[in-house]
Fold each of these.
Amino acid sequence: MKNYIFLAFAILCESVATSFLKASEGFTKPLQTIIFVVAMSASFYLLTHAIKVIPIGIAYAIWSAVGIVLISLIGYFVYKQTLDLPAILGIVLIVIGVIVINVSRNQPPIKILLKSNLYFV
C-alpha cells in the first residue's frame, strides 16, 4: 500500500514540475526553473520507491493518465488553455485504459487513487 502512496506523490510532484516547466519560459526564469528541477527530481525519486512493488508498466500507465488529467486541469485553470473535443476524448480513453488495466489485474491502485481524490474525470 505504501508504494501506491509513493506513486501518488510522484504524480503530484511531476504535475507541479510540468506546470513550472511552462512557467520557466524556456528556463529563462531562475525560480521557476529551480522549482521544476526540484519537483521533477522528487517525482523520479518517489517513482523509484513505487516501482519496487508496482510493475513499471502499470506504474507508468497510472502516472501518465493521472498526470495528463492534472496537467490539463492546470493548463485550463492557471494558463487559460482549452482542449478541443478530440483531445478531451483522447484523455478520457487513456484514463479508461488505465482503469481497465487495473481492474483486470485485480490490484488496488485505482481504488487508492479514487479514495485520495486524485481523479478529475
Amino acid sequence: MPGTGSTDGSTRTMGVLTVGGLVAVTAYTVALGSNGWLWFGWVVLGLITLGMVATRSA
C-alpha cells in the first residue's frame, strides 16, 4: 500500500496529540474546573485516533 510510512507517522502524531490533549484537559480541569465540551472533544479525538490505529493494523 503506497504511503504506509506517512500513515504510520500521522497515526503516531495523532497519538501524541491525544495524550497531550488529555494532559491539557486534565490540567484545565484541575485549575479552573470541569468543562464538558473539552472532555467531549478529547473523547472524539481519542476515537479518531483509535480508528486510525485500527485501520492501520487491519
Amino acid sequence: MPFTLLKIFDTFRPSLELYNDFAEDDISRIFPHLKETWGIEQIRMGIGSFISLDHVYNMNFSEYGGLYTIALNNKQVSDCIIKPGGKYLCGYQKGTWDKLPVIYKKMLDYTEKHSLRLTGYAYEAGLNDFVISDPNDYITKIMIQIEENA
C-alpha cells in the first residue's frame, strides 16, 4: 500500500552533475552513456531526476529536465550546478512512479495551506533502488526548495 510523508528540513549545498539529453526515453540506452560520462563510482552515489516547477504545478510529469548525481569532487565542470542550501519541503512516496502525482498534489496542497512559496526544481531520488525486488516497495524522495523571504 502506498504511503506518503511530508517534512521540511534544511539542506546542505551539494554539487550536482547533470545529464539533460532526454532524446532517448529508454534508461537501458542512457545508462551506458552515463557510465562513460560519470563513471561507475559516480553512479553508485545514486541517480535522481529533476523537473521544473511549472511542470509540477501543471501536473505534467512527461517532460523531466534531466538526471543528476552527487558530484564526487568540487571541481567545476560545464554540466555542474550547486543545489541551493536552505529549507526544502520533502515528500516521500512508496510505490511505483505512477503514484508520484499523489505526493506532488499533497506537497502543493501543504504549501498552499501553510502559505509557502516554492522555487527552483523538484529533485527526485530513489532511496532504495538497489535493494528491492518488487516495484511497489520503491521509495522516492522529492525535494523542492521553499522560498524563505515569501
Amino acid sequence: MGATRETGSDAPGEARFLARLALLAVLGSLLVLVLALGEGGLIVLGAGLLGVVLCAAGVWWFVAHRGLLRVIGALLVFLAPAGVVVLFAYQGLWLTALILVLCWGVALTCARAALRRSRPERPQVATAAARPARPVLIMNPKSGGGKVGRFGLVERAEELGARVILLDPGAPADVAELARRAVADGADLLGVAGGDGTQALVAAVAADHDLPFLVISAGTRNHLAMDLGLDRDDPSRCLDALTDGEELRIDLGDVSGRAFVNTVSFGVYADVVQRPEYRDDKAGTALSLMPDLLVGEGVRRLDSLVDGAPLADQQALLVSNNPYFSPDEISGTGRRPRLDDGELGVLGIRVEDVAQAADLAVRGSQSTGLTVLSAHRVEVTVSGPAEADGSPEAVEDAGTDGPPEAAEDAGADGPPEAGTSGAVEIPVAVDGEALRMPIPVVCTLRPGALRVLVPRDRPGVVAPPPAIDWRRILDLAFGRTVRTAPR
C-alpha cells in the first residue's frame, strides 16, 4: 500500500546472478518438457496436474459431505498421488518427473534468494532495556500440558527477582484484573506464562500503562513467541530477558474493545471451536459440523468492510495483527515477518464446490476463492439467517465453556464483555479463544502500543522467504528498474 519507490537499475550483483539462475532453471524445466514430448513429457505434466485436482476434490468431498462421498473423498486423497507415482513408474517417466521437480525446486530457491538479497528485510529496531525492579509474572500451571512445572518457571523467575502470581485452575480468575492490581502495587513489568489468549489480556493492561511486557512460551502453540523469535522448546530461556534483555515496540490488535496479539477468526473455524466437545475431540467435532457449515441449507456467510471496501459472502475470515508472509500458508505454522508494520492482515475464504476447491489447490493465492488484503480497519457482519431472525444456529447451539483452542488457560480469563441486549451475536475466535460478539465486529490496530521485553539471544529469529514475484525476477535478471512497495 502507498506509493512505490525505485531501487534502481543496478541491483546487487549477487541478486542479479541468482535471478538469472532462477530463469535458467525455469527454461531448463521447459526444455525437459519439450525434449520429452515424444517420451511422455505431456503425460508427466498432465498426470501431475490431474493428481493435484483429484486430491483437492477428495479433500473437499471428505470435509464438506457425509456418507459415501466422504468415503470416496478419503480414498481419493490417498489414491490420487499414489496413482501418479505408479503411472510414472509404469511408463518409465520417473526420471523426467524427477528432473522437472529438481529444476523447479532450483528455480524457486534461487528466485527467493535473489528477492531477499535485492531487498533485505528491514530489521525491527530493538532498544537497550534496563533491568526491571519489580517484575510481576502471571503463570498458569495447566498451560502447555504443565510447562510451568516441568521447566521450573516459578523457581527460576523468583530467583531473578520476579513476583509470581500462580493461577489456580480450579478457581476462575480475571487475569486482566490481576494485572491491573499488580500495576497499582508498583509493578514495572508484566509478563505471562500461558496461552496467547491470556497473553493478550495482560498485554492490553501493559500497553494501557506503557509498561514492558514479557512473553514466556509456556502455552501450547505460542504463536506470538514464535514470531518474536523466542525459544518455544525451553520457556525458561524467555526469563533471560529479565537480566539481559532488549525492548521491541510492536502493534496490538483490537477487536470490539478486546485486545488480540495474533488473529481473530470468523466463520467456519469460529463456529466449530464454540462447541464444548471440541476440546476433547477436535477432528471429530470439525468433521461432524463441517458439512452443515460449508454447504448446509441456510448457512451463514460473512460480509465485511475492509477499509471501506466490501468483501461479501465469505465462509471464513481471518484478521491478523500484521500480515502473514505467505497467504498460501493458512495453517497454524504460518509466520509474520514483522509485528510493527501497522497493518492488519486479512484473509477471506469462499469455496462452495469441488471446482473451487481444485482451483484453490492449483492456483493458491491467485484463486478466486482466496482473498488476501491488508487494512487498517475491518468491520465484520453477516448475511443470511443471523440478520433475518437474530438467532444464528451455531450461536444457539454453542456452549459457554470457555476457550477450546486455548483450553490450557481455562479458568484464567475473565468473562467476555456481553453484547447489548437483543443484539445479534456471532461466534468469534480471538487468539484461539471462543467468544461471541455483537455485530458489527470491528477490528483495528494500535500501532506500536506494546513494549515487549525479549532476550538478546533469540534462537527462533528467522527471515521468512519472500513471496515469489516473477516480474521482479525478470527485472533483476535484466537490470531493469525495480519498483517495490515501501517497507
